[in-house]
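Quick one, probably user error.
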C-alpha cells in the first residue's frame, strides 16, 4: 500500500416486511450495516399522506449529498417533512457534526480515503465523491460533485473544485462507486482523472488519488501508478 506524500407500497417503517426494516436490520446486524438511506429512514420514522418514507429518505439524502451542512430550515423545505420532523433530523445531524469535528480524521493512504467514502457504495447510480483536505491531510469535508456516469459531459472540474476553493483545501481525493461491482476503471475514468488533476495543478490544489469502489473493495489510481 502506497502512502500519500501530502417500488414498494409501504408508507412507514411499520408497513415494510419485517426482515427488510432498517430497525430489524439494525438489531440483527448492528448500526454499521445500515446504509445512509436506512439511517435516514429511522430518523424520519414514517411517511406523509402523499409520500412514502423511502421517498422522503431519498430526497433528504440527495439534499445532504449536495449540501452536507443542511440545516433544519433547509429540511423543512422538503415536501412531506413537517416542522417537528425537520427539527429532530436537523438536531441529529448537527450533533453528529459537532462530535465528528472535535477530531478531524487524517488521511495517509488509500485505505483512509476508502474509510471516509465507503458508505456511498449503496448508491444505485455512480456518484463522484470529493474529499477535501487541509495541509495536514485532515478531512475538511466530503461532498458529491456529480451523479451519473463519469464522462467529460457530466464531470467538470469546476464542480469538483468550487467547494474545495471555498474551504481553502490544500488537496483533494476523488472517488466514485461502481454499482456493477467491478472496480476496474474505464478509459473514461482515466480521462476524467487526468482532466481533474490538470485543473488542480493550475489551482494549486493537489489531487492525491482517485478511488473506484464498492462496498467490499476499491481500486486506487495512486497504488496502480495512474496518478
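Nope, works fine. Designed sequence:
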Amino acid at each position: 500500500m502506497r502512502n500519500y506524500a501530502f417500488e414498494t407500497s409501504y408508507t412507514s417503517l411499520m408497513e415494510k416486511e419485517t426482515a427488510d426494516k432498517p430497525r430489524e436490520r439494525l438489531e440483527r446486524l448492528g448500526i454499521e450495516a445500515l446504509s445512509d438511506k436506512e439511517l435516514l429512514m429511522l430518523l424520519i420514522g414514517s411517511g406523509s399522506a402523499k409520500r412514502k418514507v423511502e421517498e422522503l429518505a431519498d430526497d433528504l439524502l440527495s439534499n445532504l449529498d449536495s449540501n452536507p451542512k443542511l440545516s433544519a430550515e433547509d429540511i423543512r423545505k422538503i415536501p412531506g417533512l413537517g416542522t417537528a420532523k425537520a427539527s429532530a433530523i436537523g438536531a441529529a445531524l448537527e450533533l453528529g457534526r459537532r462530535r465528528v469535528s472535535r477530531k478531524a480524521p487524517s488521511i495517509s493512504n488509500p485505505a483512509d480515503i476508502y474509510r471516509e467514502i465507503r458508505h456511498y457504495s449503496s448508491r444505485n447510480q455512480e456518484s463522484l465523491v470529493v474529499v477535501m483536505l487541509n495541509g495536514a491531510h485532515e478531512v475538511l469535508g466530503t461532498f458529491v460533485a456529480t451523479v451519473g456516469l463519469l464522462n467529460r459531459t457530466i464531470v467538470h472540474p469546476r464542480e469538483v473544485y468550487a467547494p474545495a476553493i471555498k474551504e481553502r483545501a490544500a488537496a483533494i481525493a476523488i472517488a466514485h462507486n461502481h454499482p456493477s461491482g467491478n472496480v476496474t476503471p474505464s478509459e473514461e475514468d482515466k480521462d476524467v482523472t487526468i482532466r481533474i488533476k490538470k485543473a488542480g495543478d493550475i489551482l494549486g490544489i493537489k489531487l492525491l488519488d482517485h478511488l473506484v469502489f464498492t462496498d467490499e473493495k476499491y481500486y486506487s489510481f495512486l497504488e496502480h501508478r495512474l496518478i
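Residues 110-220 form a domain with the Cytidine Deaminase; domain 2 fold (CATH 3.40.140.10).
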